[in-house]
Amino acid sequence: MERAVAQADTNAVEFPSVTVTIWKSQYGSAELGTRELSLQNAVEHLCYECLEEQHGGWEINEGSFGEFILDVAARMIRLEHHGRIVDTVYSSDSF
Length: 95
What we know:
The protein is α+β, with helices and mostly antiparallel strands. The chain has one helix at residues 39-54, and strands spanning 6-8, 11-13, 19-25, 32-38, 65-71, 76-82. 17% of the residues lie in helices and 36% in strands. The N and C termini lie far apart (47 Å).
């Protein structure tokens, strides 16, 4: 994945220099864990989480690609994902 970039209209802008707290469940615990990330890294983390939720195993196929579009004003995230899958199924059975 390439780095997240910010835009205002069609102009590239810098991410604000702020820190974001990410809350996440922890395996085997009822407590939530936290991580402090820059805003840019938090956006990237969110994108990876959404990608894994919708397209688990995306990293092992034949060159998938896509783009996340976060529209802050509309409070909307859109993922345009193109998966490439080469599928071969072989079976040999003796009874």
